[in-house]
Amino acid sequence: MQIDKDLVAASATPLVLAILAEGESYGYAILRRVRELSNGELDWTDGMLYPLLHRLHRLGYVTTEWRTPPEGRRRRYYAVTDGGRAALAEHRRQWETVTRALRGIWRGGDLLSFAFGRA
Fold it and tell me: Which of 20-29, 33-42, 70-79 has the least mean pLDDT?
C-alpha cells in the first residue's frame, strides 16, 4: 500500500518524537523502528528523516551528540528534550481527536457507502 505523502508528512514529527521518547537513537535505527512499527508499510528514506531531525533540533525538541560506539562507527545520536515531550503530548492529543472522529464515521459505514456510490 502506498501511504499518501501528506499523511506521511503529518505523522512524521509525532512518530519520530515518540520513538525518541522510548530512548535516544541514531538515524538508521529510527528508520528501522519506523519500518518495524508500520509492518514495513512506511519505508522512509534518509532524505526524509534527516531534514526532519534538523528541524526538530532547531525547534529545541531534540538534542544531538556525536558518539563512537564500541562497534566503531561514529554516529549522531538524538534524544528528546522536555520541549519535545511537551510537543509530543500536544501532537498525541490532536491525533487522538482526529482518530476518534475517523473511527466514528467509519464505524457508521457512511464512508464505505460513499466510496461505493451508495450515499
Answer: 70-79
Contact criterion met (CB below 8 Å) for 24 and 78: yes
Partners of residue 65 on adjacent β-strands: 77
What is the SS3 assignment for 63?
Answer: strand
Give CA 104 to chain center in angstroms.
24
| Spatial contact of 27 and 108, defined as CB atoms under 8 Å apart | no
Closest CA to 19 of 35, 8, 30, 32: 30
Global pTM? 0.85
Long-range contacts of range 5-10, CB-CB < 8 Å, 24 or more positions apart? Answer: 8/42, 8/44, 8/48
Cell numbers of 54, please? 534538523
